[in-house]
Amino acid sequence: MRHNIVAGNWKMNKNAAETTQLLADILNQLPSGKEVEVIVAPSFVNLSQAVNILEHTNVSVAAQNMHQAEGGAFTGEVSASMLSSVGVSNVILGHSERRAYFKETDALLANKVDTALKHEMRVIFCIGEELKDRQNKQHFNVVDTQLRDGLFHLGANAWVNIVLAYEPVWAIGTGETATPEQAQEMHHFIRETIQHQYGSSVAENVSILYGGSVKPDNAKEIFSKPDVDGGLIGGAALSAEDFVAIVSAVE
Ligand code: PEP
After folding, report:
1. What distance in angstroms lies between residue 212's CA and the mean position of ligand 1's atoms?
2. Is the pTM value of this prediction over 0.95?
3. Pick from 229, 214, 225: which is nearest to 9 by CA?
4. What amino acid positions are annotated as catalytic residues?
């Protein structure tokens, strides 16, 4: 069901002690009574610890990636069943850093999505164009292809476990944010594309997060747009104060 979500992607930051501290600070400062789901995505090695700390709270845990295979000779990789076994039920897939630095393609990501869903995990699936795509006016085409090739093989029922994150690559970690109007325009396009493929019910029920240099001072305006259902936060998720201020910016 569509609802507001703010998820923090910690990337390759925070060791064990720092993870404990950041989680404690977030829990201390989080406002109560907000209609927003809060998710944090620490590194693999600290997931188990995060699940334990967050037990009996309203904050849930996501992995930042996983392998598509069930198991086997894939040195250094982590499987869906390993994540499930330590209580992780969300996974971020298709982050632009995975696509760029680890050459993850839409076809590979479609496999990862299938494996995650098979293990009853919820997927936060990232899509978004590069700067050159926007300059060449190809941004809608790029996002359309990522959606189709990564997710449109799914049946309509699977979409209850899909959350989308529109993250224009040119706005990630750059301090440059899409304007609220640019975000709304793309989120509307995404919802419309899903509606054409699956119908209104799936389109209206999927949460679409915006990601890309969201900070306490720009979150409120972006989140106020009708097709923006919260955010996927990178840099600002590493400060409890900033992250909680962003959570608080959700109407
Ligand atoms: C991200 O990496 O998902 C992200 C949105 O990063 P930042 O907020 O730092 O731009």
Report:
1. 5
2. yes
3. 214
4. 95, 167
What is the whole-number distance in angstroms between the Cα of residue 199 and the centre of ligand 1? Answer: 30
d(C-alpha 25, C-alpha 9), whole Å: 16
Domain edges within the chain: 5-243
Fold annotation for 5-243: TIM Barrel (3.20.20)
Residues within the annotated binding site for substrate? 9-11, 173, 213, 234-235
Pocket of ligand 1 contains residue 173 by CB under 6 Å: yes
Is 230's C-beta closer than 6 angstroms to any atom of ligand 1? no
Interface confidence, given as ipTM, is 0.96
Query: Which residue's entry shows tokens 């840099």?
Result: 235
pLDDT (tens digit, 9 = 90+) per residue, 16-75?
999 999 999 999 999 988 899 999 999 999 999 999 999 999 999 999 999 999 999 999
pLDDT 10s digits, 137-183: 999 999 999 999 999 999 999 999 999 999 999 999 888 889 999 99
Q: Assess contact for 117 and 156: CB atoms under 8 A.
A: no
Residue in this structure with the two tokens 């076994």, named with its chain if needed: 85
Does residue 246 line the site of ligand 1, with CB under 6 A? no
